[in-house]
Amino acid sequence: MATTPIARPRSSPLAYRVPLRLDRRGAPSRYLLKNVGDEPLRGLSFSLLGAGLMKASPPLLLAPGQEVRLSIRGATLPLTAVLVVRWFRPNGDEYLWRVSF
For 4-25, how does the pLDDT look when each residue is reduced to its tens digit (9 = 90+)? Predict the structure, then answer.
């Protein structure tokens, strides 16, 4: 009986940790988003899905340690809305982060 060689597992890269921290202390209308990573985030943009209002802004460049303030209004944000944060890493990879209120 012939045996099949056991394939070695491929080494896969570690998961990419979201380099952002959302400070909710100003909720329900003000939020502070900070780049806690070690690389700049290009094309940072925000989309509010659901019931609520948020001022539009052009895509941003957020360096490590920098913060951006978001003003979001809505009576039922935790029940009816999510914030989607989009950015590009220096290598061009695109990421989306869905944030619940």
Answer: 667 666 676 788 999 999 999 9
Question: Containing domain of residue 88, as a range?
Answer: 20-100
Taking 70 as the pLDDT cut, the residues of the chain under it are 1-5, 7-10, 12
Whether residue 4 lies inside any domain: the answer is: no
DSSP assignment of the chain: ---PPPPPPPP-PPPPPP-EEEE-TTTTTEEEEEE-SSS-EEEEEEEEEES-EE-----EEE-TT-EEEEEEE-TTHHHHEEEEEEEE-TTS-EEEEEEE-
pTM for the full predicted model: 0.83
